[in-house]
Amino acid sequence: MRHWNVIADTLHSGDVFLPLLPEDGGGVAHANDWAKGFIRGMELRKTDWAAFLDDEKHGGWLVPIFALAHEHNPDPEMRPYKETISAEDREKLIVGAAAGVTGIYRYFEAQRSVERQPFDNATTFRRTVPKIGRNDPCPCGSGKKFKQCCGRTTLH
Asked: What's the pLDDT at 156?
């Protein structure tokens, strides 16, 4: 969470964003795993990102990220380059990805400010039935305590 807060603060302040990239044994930061992680994060809000991808003016910010993420894709058709990416081109892609994150942050800024607006009283949730306590009998009729029956935490 601390790392996320540092990234959010960096982007909010307008400072240059530099992704945390581990280096291989030769001292080269490939950024492939970082780009794959970014794309996995995009999957959490597919509808928001779909609109961004369709935006011709801003969608290009993702090109270097997709290029890095798919560099070693098992399907050769998904690879952005047929040859191995040179060190100079990799550096350009990493710089482009970092700049892209800043552009993406600014693109979604309006949406974030709408999400932060406080709810008014018309949207306040009111419970219509009494709250079931942990140690109350389960309403399903099993005879067990709620915490041992329907209130039990399940892991998927």
From this structure: 46
**Neighbouring residues of 35: CB distance < 8 A, sequence distance ≥ 6:** 65, 66, 67, 68, 69, 97
Nearest-10 Cα torsion for 12, 14, 15, 19: 60
Phi–psi pair at 153, nearest 5 degrees: -70, 130
The answer to whether the pTM exceeds 0.70 is no
Query: From CA 14, how far away is CA 127, in angstroms rounded?
Result: 43
Q: Name the one residue in this structure whose structure tokens are 């993406």.
A: 104
- The answer for residues whose C-beta is within 8 angstroms of residue 116's C-beta and 6 or more apart is none
Phi/psi for 103 (5° steps) reads: -65, -40
